[in-house]
Amino acid sequence: MAWTDYGSAPAPGTRICPASAVTGVHPMTVRTDRGDFPVIVLRDGDAVRAFVNACPHQYLPLDYRGSTLLSADGARLLCTAHGASFDKTTGAALAGADCGLDPVPVTQNGDHIVIAA
Fold first, then answer.
1. Distance CA 115, CA 77 (A)
2. Which residues are registered as beta bridge partners of 117?
3. What is the DSSP letter of 32?
4. Rounded to whole angstroms, how far apart are CA atoms 61 and 77?
5. How far is it, in rounded angstroms, from Cα 69 to Cα 20?
6. What does the alpha-carbon distance between residue 80 and residue 93 come to, in Å, rounded to a whole number?
7. Domain encompassing residue 86
8. Cα–Cα distances in Å, from 60 out to 17, 23, 27, 94, 116?
9. C-alpha distances out from residue 114 to 13, 18, 43, Å
10. In this structure, what CATH number is given to the domain that contains residue 97?
11. How many structural domains is the chain composed of?
């Protein structure tokens, strides 16, 4: 499923959060007139990445049972519900799920992280 297949997917240009707020891995909800859209925003060096916050195994949020979403080595995103792991750069499934996380294109626009086109 692509992130745009979600009925609540925000339009390009929608502000997600202040860029200064992205210092690690942050699950959040983007609220628009389309509804609530669950997203994980993370800083990876100078890059900011985002994924739909829904594990493809059961479609529960990755932070369903806790807030520790990054592996000890910092390379993998973890599902707290059942332990699936995903590459933090691409969202590709590494273990515990048949497919990866849905990436959401984001960019920094001034002082904010926004949905990219």
1. 21
2. none
3. E
4. 12
5. 19
6. 15
7. 3-115
8. 22, 24, 12, 17, 25
9. 5, 9, 14
10. 2.102.10.10
11. 1
pLDDT of residue 53: 97
Say how many CA atoms lie within 13 Å of 9 toward its Cβ: 21
Distance CA 40, CA 52 (A): 6
Q: Which residue has the tokens 């979403």?
A: 69
User: What local confidence, expressed as pLDDT, does residue 59 receive?
Assistant: 85
Please state, in angstroms and as integers, the Cα–Cα distance from residue 81 to each residue in 9, 39, 43, 76, 116, following that order. Answer: 23, 16, 23, 15, 29
Parts of the chain with a pLDDT under 70: none
Nearest to 52 by CA among 114, 84, 6, 97: 6
Please name which of 49, 64, 66, 65 lies closest in space to residue 101, comparing C-alpha atoms: 49
Place of tokens 């990876």: 44
What pLDDT score does 1 carry? 76
